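note to self: dont lose this again. the chain is below, predicted strucutre after it. 80 aa total, dont forget to put it in the shared folder this time
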Amino acid sequence: MKKLTVEVVPGAKTNEVLERGKGKLKVRVEVPASAGKANKSAIELLAFYLGIKKNQLVILSGEKSRIKKIGVLKKDKVLN
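---
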């Protein structure tokens, strides 16, 4: 499974994905961090950025943190 380190910034002025080095991304989302809305928005934006379906992304750790480890799956098998 390919793993990405993602910093999610809720309440940003714009939705955007910024590269921060090998396997590290910063995702800015307009929605606030309440009831998982920022996580959902970040997954949707990241999936669009990577050109994959949102169900191919899984939050491995950091569900309630700004820094998250996200696994990238390729259809029915793991992306290497």
